Amino acid sequence: MTAATFSQWMSDIQQRTETALDCALPAADIAPARLHEAMRYAALGGGKRVRPLLVHAAGQLSGATPERLDRVACAIEMIHAYSLVHDDMPCMDDDVLRRGKPTVHVEYDEATALLVGDALQTQAFLHIADAPVCDSPQGQIAMIRQLALASGSRGMCGGQAIDLAAVGLQLSLAELEFMHIHKTGALIRASINLGVQCGRRLGDNEMASLDHVGKVIGLLFQVVDDILDTEADTATLGKTAGKDAASDKPTYVSLLGVNRARELAEEMCADALGRLAAFGDASQRLAELTRYIVRRQF
Predict the structure, then answer these.
(1) How far apart are the first and last CA of the chain?
(2) With 70 as the cut, is the pLDDT of residue 48 above it?
(3) What DSSP letter does each residue of 99-152 carry, written as one string?
């Protein structure tokens, strides 16, 4: 059998994730119907599914089954979707467009959007706890704990708090990296770590190396996001272009300029690929995803 191309593999995982999410979310006709409808609106039918792609790519390093990876990928994507719903609200970034359609608080209302985020977060933990995703109960508890850390005040939420406090300030490169290691990077890092743990146990040195890869890819994703925010248009991005500059937020572009930000992205890509080379053919999809992230156009 001929191996799938990267684009074919990526499309397959995206469709697989869409199907799995459709099954994982409450049906729109179950009470409270409006809340469930809005949850599905937020989570289905859009997005690059970068985090599920990372989960599945990392799972190839440990021979994890697709079914286990689906469950972890859905849990992480629900956390991600909830964060976007809350980020877009007037009390945060106050945006009206996400994934090319009205944001949840615009399509529904602010109270519903708040509840959608709350419900997607708890649904994520229900989903990852509801069936085995690794070989031992202790291991599964450890994975759930890792997801909680990546999502909370020491991860994604903490990064968002730092981001809100940094509006109008000029951060150093180290301060900017600290913010994005948490805000954007924590969930991307967790995608790789949890995907690997769905399969056979890897050695401590291998896990440490992959954790470094996850940290670098998380920062790389944000650098490219900052570049796109200055260069791409709203129709291409599916969200409001130029929002960070208009809001006077510190970014890699505002700190370094576009050219140096591009150079930094290439350096991060090379760092991650260098680490992945030690894993041989099993890291093919993860390496391809790293290249895709650095060269993406939206």
Answers:
(1) 32
(2) yes
(3) TTEE-HHHHS-HHHHHHHHHHHHHHHHHHHHSS--SS-HHHHHHHHHHHHHHHS
Q: What percent of the chain has pLDDT over 70?
A: 97
Alpha helical stretches, state H, the chain: 6-24, 33-43, 50-59, 66-87, 104-107, 110-129, 137-151, 156-165, 173-183, 185-197, 204-231, 234-237, 243-246, 252-256, 258-276, 284-295
Supply the Cα-derived Rg of the chain in whole angstroms: 18
Is residue 151's pLDDT more than 80? yes
For the chain, the domains span: 9-295
**Exposure string for 133-165, b = 16+ CB within 10 A, e = fewer:** bbeeeeebeebbebbeebbeeebbbbbbebbee
Report whether CATH 1.25.40.10 matches the domain 9-295.
no
For the chain, give the number of residues: 298
Question: CA torsion sign, 212 to 181 to 130 to 103?
Answer: negative
